[in-house]
Each structure stands twice: as C-alpha cells, then as structure tokens.
Specification:
This protein is mainly α and about 200 residues long. About 65% of the residues lie in helices and about 0% in strands. Helix 1 crosses helix 6, helix 4 crosses helix 7 and helix 6 packs across helix 8.
Length: about 200
C-alpha cells in the first residue's frame, strides 16, 4: 500500500477520536476542526518517516498537542471569558448529558496545561508516562497538573451542589460517576478507545 493510502486509512480510522480531543482542547467545534486540519497537514509531510518507525499514533497526538499549544499562545490575548463558555459539540455524538452540561464548562475554565492533561488522561485513556512523553515533561508534572485540575473540578462541582449523577439530571445507567469527584472517575464519554474524541 502506498504511503498516501496508509495515511488516508490512518485518518479514516482515527479522525473522530482526534477531532474529539481537538474539540475538547480548544473548546469549540470550529477551532477543533481547524486544529485537527493543521495537525494532519503537518503530519502528512513526514508520514513516510513516522510510519516506518511505527509510532504514527504517538506522533500525531504530540503534533496535535504542540499545535494546540502554539494556537493557544497565538490566541490567548483574544480569549473570551469562560463565565459562559460556548457549547462544545463533538461530531461523533459521544458526549453525555452530564459531560456536556455539568463538566464541560469547568473543563474549559482550567488552565491550558491542566485541560490538556485531563483530556489526554480521561478522554483519550493515556497513561501518565504517555502524557508526559506527548507533553515533553516529567511524569511528576503530569501527576501534579492532574491532581490540581481534579481538585478544582471537585470543588467547583461541589459549589454547584453536584455530588451524584441524579443531581446532575442524567441517567446513572448510561453516564457513570460524576467526573472529577473521584480521582479514578471515568470521563470517557461513552465510546471505547479508538471507536469513531
């Protein structure tokens, strides 16, 4: 198979998961699509090299996060208040009521680095060492960002009086635990890893 064909197959297989991650990082469908498009354009240029090394998935994630970091730096002066963040819609329909209504505004209010760590950890299912490799930082830094971000989420959700799924108005059989209240909470929005974030 040609490298163009392999790249196309990779994009077809991973597009929805990568888009979900991009949307969660940027906070908007449009910005997420732009971020993913830029990431895939950068990846295409070096596809032959990375496919030979067998590290395409890790490389694309790293490019996605690095591109997001660059995007954030360019746009941080133009960021709007997160007092009423925009509604984020993921095209694959994998979001849950609880995630969309309760967690997402708080996730968008976290620092860029904290949000990135939580998205990679809970939405993408990456381990702390994998996240550290993608972000180019020590595992301890990943743990610190994760711990602080979860503490912020716990505190903000508690301030809203959200202590369980029923209070959030969601179906406990389809949603699972309230994200952020438990260090081991499952933030995955209902699709198995790699399925069409």
């Amino acid at each position: 198979m040609s490298s163009d064909g392999e790249f196309g197959d990779f994009v077809t297989a991973r597009h929805h998961a990568l888009l979900r991650t991009a949307v969660l990082l940027t906070g908007s469908q449009h910005a997420g699509e732009d971020l993913l498009q830029e990431t895939l354009a950068k990846t295409y240029v070096v596809w032959d090299r990375i496919r030979r090394k067998g590290a395409a998935e890790a490389y694309v994630r790293r490019v996605l996060v690095n591109t997001y970091t660059s995007w954030w730096r360019r746009h941080r002066g133009r960021e709007r208040s997160v007092a009423s963040p925009p509604e984020v819609q993921v095209a694959d329909g994998a979001t849950t009521v609880l995630d969309r209504v309760v967690l997402r505004p708080h996730l968008l209010a976290l620092s860029r680095r904290q949000r990135t760590v939580l998205v990679l950890r809970f939405y993408e299912g990456m381990t702390e060492p994998e996240i550290a490799a993608v972000l180019g930082c020590p595992v301890g830094t990943v743990k610190s960002h994760s711990s602080r971000a979860l503490a912020i989420l716990r505190r903000r959700l508690a301030e809203e009086g959200v202590t369980d799924v029923q209070q959030a108005g969601a179906d406990p059989d389809t949603v699972g635990p309230v994200p952020g209240l438990d260090e081991t909470a499952d933030l995955t929005p209902g699709t198995p890893q790699g399925a069409p974030l």
